[in-house]
Structures are given as structure tokens and as C-alpha cells.
Amino acid sequence: MTHRIGLIGFGTIATDVVSSLRPQLDVQLAALCRRPESCTDTTVRAFTQFDELVAWKPDLLVEVASQSAVHDYALQSLKHGIPFLVTSVGALADAAFLQQLEEAATAQQTSVLVPSGAVGSLDYLQAVRHAPQVDVVYESRKPVAAWKDELQNLGHDPDTLAGEVELYSGDAQTAAQRYPKNLNVAATLAVAGVGMEATQVRVVADPAVQHNQHTIRVISPFGALQTRLVNQPSPSNPKTSWIVAQSVVATIVRHFSPIKIG
């Protein structure tokens, strides 16, 4: 069976999604691009207007653009009865907006899909989230290249940084909103687990590391979990882990699969 999938945006992640998705699923692909020429894959149909993309009758819309794109199109998609996959999960840090999405998805009997992205352990977190006491701490540790602008704004020279710099320590809601291009993982963990305010986040720029590192610690009455992931940065965007596109593809394939694991 052929599935129609529409992409919102066509940048680094979208390019990787397209190349990895086709061998796994029979699909027709289209993309919403502000400029048609920005959709560089000629096998992907390009639209400049959202209404045109909806009229194409996609089975799923996949946001691979920005938090603003989630705000612009997710609710519209759900109201048309089209499931919507969110990669810029920091947009869900807005509790009122998240509630609107839930209500629209329920009314239209559709859903919002959130891939695990750069992290794992979401199944464990969802299993323990309703325990009376759950502590969740997430640390993001990335190379200096991912934080050049932020370090310069704090008065550090990224090229001569000698030691690690803590950029943020606090709740996931503030982290996701303050760093929309880097901290979608924090929002994903919070949505899967104990919420934005209860999920604690530490953000570190570290000249000693070469890869994006994510450490998750969960303590509950059911036990304890510590997970450490070391991801390759995307070759064309060091703020994003290369694995993110593969996670998006896995979520799409699972959505259409008759057997769902996890």
C-alpha cells in the first residue's frame, strides 16, 4: 500500500528522512516549502501553500522545520483529521497549546506523533511516570561547535575555551523555550514523563567532547535508570544529532505498521 506523506520544511533532517524512508516504505512524498527551489529533491512534490498540501490528501504530515512551524500547522492538520508528527518538540512546552492539540486530535480521532529523536528510554519513562515520586534529570553535553553563538553572547571565545561551561540548569520548559534548536530532547523527555516543570535539565558546552552526549537519570519506587547516549552530530548541522532523522523514519514506519512494538 502506498502512503502519502507531507513534509513541513525541507532542510537537513527532511533530506535524511527522504533518503532513509523510501527503502523501508512505499511512499509518495510532498513538501511545504516557502520557496519551491528549496525543495532540492525533484522526486518530492513541492507546495508553497498549506491548503495545497492538504488538498493533496496526505496520510501523515511531518514537521521538520521549527517550533514556529508546529504552531502554524499542527492544529490545522489535526482539524483536517491528518495525524501530525512533531520533531521540534520544544513547541509542546506551551501547556495551553499542547492542550489544544490534544483536544483537536481527540475530536477528529487522529493523533500527534512524537519521535524519540536523539534519546532513548522513553518506554521506561512512560511506564513509571504515574508513580507517586519520580525524579528525572537530563544532561545535554555537546561540543563547542553546537554552542558558538551562545558562548560568544556570554563573553567566551569558542576557539580558545579551556573547560566546560554550564549554559543552563533548571526545568525543561525554560530549557526548550530558551534553546529551541538544541533542547528538543528536554521537551520530549518531559512530555513522555513527569512534565515540563518537574523534569530537570543541565546544559553543558564541553570542548573535550566530539559528539552530542545525552544522560538521563530516572529514580522511582520501581527502581532506577541511567542512560547515556553518544550521538554523531549531523554533518551539516552540529546542533542536531544525526540519529534524529532515523528516529523520525522509525516513527513513520511504526505508524503505518500492523505490528507496533514499544
What do you see in this structure?
The structure is a single chain. The protein has 262 residues and is an alpha/beta fold. The chain folds into 2 domains: 3-113 and 243-256, NAD(P)-binding Rossmann-like Domain (Rossmann fold); 122-231, Dihydrodipicolinate Reductase, domain 2. It is 32% helix and 27% strand. The strands form 3 sheets. It has a 6-stranded parallel β-sheet with strand order 3-2-1-4-5-6, with helices on both faces. Strands 8-9-7-10-11 form a 5-stranded mixed β-sheet.
Question: Reading side by side through the largest sheet, how are the strands ordered?
Answer: 3-2-1-4-5-6
**Low-pLDDT runs:** none
- Total discrete domains: 2
CATH topology of the largest domain: Rossmann fold
Number of strands: 13
- End-to-end Cα distance: 23 Å
Mean pLDDT over all positions:
94
Q: Could you tell me the radius of gyration in angstroms?
A: 19 Å
Helix/strand order, N-terminal first: EHEEHEHEHEHEHEHHEEEEEH
The CATH first-level class of the largest domain comes to Alpha Beta
The residue fraction in helices comes out at: 25-40%
Q: Which secondary-structure class do the elements indicate?
A: alpha/beta
CATH architecture of the largest domain: 3-Layer(aba) Sandwich
Q: Any idea what the shape is?
A: globular
CATH superfamily of the largest domain: NAD(P)-binding Rossmann-like Domain
Strand content: 25-35%
